[in-house]
TrEMBL record, chains A, B:
Example GO biological process: RNA processing
Organism: Planococcus salinus
Keyword Transcription regulation: no
Annotated TM spans: none
This protein's name: RNA methyltransferase
Any one of the GO CC terms: cytoplasm
Domain called RNA 2-O ribose methyltransferase substrate binding: residue spans: 32-101
Cross-referenced InterPro entries: Alpha/beta_knot_MTases, MRM3-like_sub_bind, Ribosomal_eL30-like_sf, rRNA_Methyltransferase, SpoU_MeTrfase, SpoU_subst-bd, tRNA_m1G_MTases_N
Entry-linked Pfam families: MRM3-like_sub_bind, SpoU_methylase
Keywords: Methyltransferase, Transferase
MF terms (GO), sorted A to Z: RNA binding; RNA methyltransferase activity
Tagged with keyword Signal: no
Amino acid sequence: MKRIESTQNSLVKHWKKLVTTRKERDKFSEFLVEGFHLTEEALKEKALVKSLIVREGVDIPEEWDVAEVPHYSVTAQVAKEISETEHSQGIFAHCAQPEFTEEEQQRWSTLLLIDAVQDPGNIGTMIRTASASGVDAVILGKGCADPFNPKTVRSAQGSHFQIPVVKGDLRDWTDQLKSRNIPIFGTALTNATPVHETEAQENFALIVGNEGSGVDPQLLQKTDQNLVIPLYGSAESLNVAVATGILLYGLVPKSKVE
Amino acid sequence: MKRIESTQNSLVKHWKKLVTTRKERDKFSEFLVEGFHLTEEALKEKALVKSLIVREGVDIPEEWDVAEVPHYSVTAQVAKEISETEHSQGIFAHCAQPEFTEEEQQRWSTLLLIDAVQDPGNIGTMIRTASASGVDAVILGKGCADPFNPKTVRSAQGSHFQIPVVKGDLRDWTDQLKSRNIPIFGTALTNATPVHETEAQENFALIVGNEGSGVDPQLLQKTDQNLVIPLYGSAESLNVAVATGILLYGLVPKSKVE
């Protein structure tokens, strides 16, 4: 176990940049998770964990199998430097962003496609919802918040280690999915079928869009069918993560549960 | 239009406390909303608006009918003092919290009951979702975040002016609803019916619970039936606002839409 005392240490500077800038996360294809719950979830995908970072005085739970994972012991000051939370638990995992081969990506047959959703908390909640609903993967198009933003990671509650989350061009994705005969459902307010009138689908891609403007009209031209969640009351719209939950649970086969 | 220049003005101090403390909101049964969208929504329930507060240089949209509403023009410094956001739009409405008579409350026959949900953003999203789903009212039990917290108000996007939101004792509420033969649905992980196996209900109360521990077991003993959202994938749970959306849209009659 190495000990780091200085916030000027180059590794500390790298960790801090992973927390604060998308540029660093993109450049190295890495991210940092914080807290016992997220670190434990990360350790379930051990190949992704580059190192554990532990504040002095914090004990790693005995049941964690971390013998082969590099450890850093850091001072309270260093822990504070790389923490995003007010009351840090003093434990972090420095992780690689998962990557998926072309072949793996071609096997996904139930997908959530997210177009330009800007709020990191919404993106995180949508990843968590996708993981719960059992779909194969989440694809984030242009204009989306970074899925490895600390706020996104926190609201996803560990789902980044459970379901593939990749960034991509949604036009390329819809072309690819069409060529594989996977039905594509958009979301729109007009010319759309109420979600409760749709059947569950063995394979599907669902596209949800920006908090204010919805799905890009050019993408909607590529869909097989557009869905709408009826608004029975006075609210003009639903939160996009809530809408995603209602839509995904409308589309996934109901027999899958064990 | 009165002009206020000092942050030491007693009204400014009252507005600031409405933004920052639940005690002030509870004591006066008032709250402050910020921004063009929320102020416009507030003006749709004009009886609730005690005054408009406008930063110098900010124009009230011409189409707003505000002739009878008291106005205060305030300096940038005063506006900053009472603002909760980083980039304030410089427009606020000082509002009374809506109140409902016993008789009105007895007429509500589709209700969302919230038990000890702590995150203000979740509460706001749930109020917005309830308003969209068309239920009659939202009841917040003990341990819930204040529905008039600025974060809650912001995430509800104006739904506070569209759907009754009241604080109450959920045991009293379940007793009252039972005496009116309104079926009560709890949410639980065991001994529960998958939500997609439930029929839509003309009248119902749905109880959802705390982010970590769910609905109080003592409340669950008073329900007619408990519902569960199956987790088909790896995530251990859903965000409570997402879950509320799936459950409410499972229960509300699907024919209501116009």
